[in-house]
Amino acid sequence: MSSSRLPLTATLVCIAAIGVGWLLEHRSHARLQQENAELSARLAATEETLAKSRPDPEAVAADNRAREALQAEVLRLRGDVANLRRNQATPKKAPLPASAPTPNPTLPTATEETPGTGPGWMASRVPLNGGALFPAWTSADGKQAWVLAIPSVAQPDINSGNVMLEQMIFEGSPEVLANLGIGNTPAGGAAGFAPLDPEGSKALLERLRKTDGIDVLSAPRIITGGGREAQVSIGNDTGGRLDLSVVPNLAPDGNVDLRLKVSRSEGTGQP
Length: 271
Known about the structure:
Elements: H1 2-53, H2 57-89, E1 122-126, E2 131-138, E3 144-153, E4 162-172, H3 174-179, E5 195-196, H4 198-210, E6 215-218, E7 221-225, E8 230-236, E9 240-250, E10 256-265
Antiparallel strand pairs: 1-10, 2-3, 2-5, 3-4, 4-6, 4-7, 8-9, 9-10
């Protein structure tokens, strides 16, 4: 009797073991599904939070444009104040007494020349962070030299009304320059030179740095403003010298009236 129950008992034990294993696996699978659903919900909530926290690109661009316009307006007002102070500081000529002799009208009277005017000066109206190209000279080997001038607000000196001019003096053959679209700039003087917008000046600056056949001779930076002339000299009398003069003045419309003159002298070769 007892011997016949042993197989039955063993069978029941096996069935119980299989049932317990299946039950444990079912519960484990259900728990994993629940945890996966919770993680998916948390991930979706996190992505929604991140999406709300990301700044709107259009709002950021509008804020940057408003900030640049405000900086330009502050710079213009500072330039107007500087011009007003300079005019007030200029002594006024006293009227001639009645007994004083009348000056001979045939003789020229010496006057102070306005900065940025006279022979050799070139002019262009440039937007802030834009640029203008000015021709400089043609070398004996046929290479043409140009100056790229890019005005921006002088940071952190914004309250002084100054403008920072980033300039690149470069030269290349007419063929290389033509591939960059350089060489057809209109004549200077009162007509001025064709300006570049900020995107165009930045793109040209990068192309000049990467183009084979373009030699960057110098890249000076000058800070000035209020219609004041600033000068920088590169080289010396022995090896040759380059003199660059600029006069920037912020216009009421937020653009920069830029005047520039380049003079170049050959070196003597003697120390």
